[in-house]
Amino acid sequence: MNNIEVERVFLLKKLPEDLLEYKHIDIKIGDFTQNNDVDILKARQKGDKFELIKKETISDLERKEYVIPLSENEFNILFPVTSRKHSKKRFFYPLDKFTCEIDFYLEDMLGYARAEVEFESSKEAEEFTPPSWFGDEITSINHIIHEGLGEISFQTMEDRYKKRGIDLRDIQFDKG
Known about the structure:
The chain has helices at 72-78, 122-127, 142-145, 154-163; strands at residues 2-12, 24-31, 41-46, 49-57, 62-70, 84-95, 98-105, 113-119, 134-137. By secondary structure, the chain is of the alpha+beta class. The mean pLDDT is 90.
């Protein structure tokens, strides 16, 4: 299966107060290469779904995504041989007609959170007005700033943003 993703990515100023009322899943991702190529092959577990992912950049806003479903056994064979691994908790938060995916990174990246909003078209993405609790937009630097994800810490990420004049907030949430 493949489809075109049109998305914008933002840091967060704060969390919506009702966030814990919405569905969330745990995600594990492993990259099959050490470099930071945006278009690398990944093994991903999203809740109880297991997939092989390949993304192809079209523009800052658009990427083609190829998804091959895997069995849990296939994932368990592939994941250990990936070069870099990270995990996060993703919340699905409604924003008018859109769904905002709020990712909380875990382990060494604890405190790092960002939001992605997917759109039907580039025009729709460009017309989107982010809510006041969104912080700086990072769509154009999203992949550059995440270089080495799975091998870096929150402090490294904070330093990277600081060099770009962006204040990264340590976002914590009450797991309830």
